[in-house]
Amino acid sequence: xxxxxxxxxxxxxxxxxxxxxxxxxxxxxxxxxxxxxxxxxxxxxxxxxxxxxxxxxxxxxxxxxxxxxxxxxxxxxxxxxxxxxxxxxxxxxxxxxxxxxxxxxxxxxxxxx
Length: 113
Ligand code: HEC
Description:
Layout: H1 2-5, H2 11-45, H3 57-67, H4 69-78, H5 82-112
Helix pairs in contact: 2-3, 2-4, 2-5, 3-4, 3-5, 4-5
The protein binds heme C.
């Protein structure tokens, strides 16, 4: 990939892009590990079941954190779209999808208690 980029850009410029991209992916991965941990805890506590992996609210939001807004966060950064990566990616991932997943699990826990 660097060979392609350096056809037009300096090595420093192209490396800078990939360094920044790696940092964005590292940030995303922290959120993903947290989200995945929440789902595993919910299975262990019996808040949701593994019968169908994508039928319960928490499972759907878990999927969206990876594949929907999470993909926009990672791919937005890889395609040099900071506004898209931030608002459609990071903000939707954390404030909408992860937030709704946490709310759903807290509600289930409160009801079952
Ligand atoms: C064919 C020449 C060419 C190649 C190959 C190329 N670029 Fe560019 N790149 C440009 C030009 C021209 C611009 C400026 C476009 C503009 O300002 O509208 C640009 C802009 C950019 C920007 C700034 C984007 C922004 O929104 O400010 C980054 C970062 C970048 N390129 C990284 C890369 C990387 C990484 C690669 C390899 C995957 C790459 N480029 C391959 C020509 C190229």
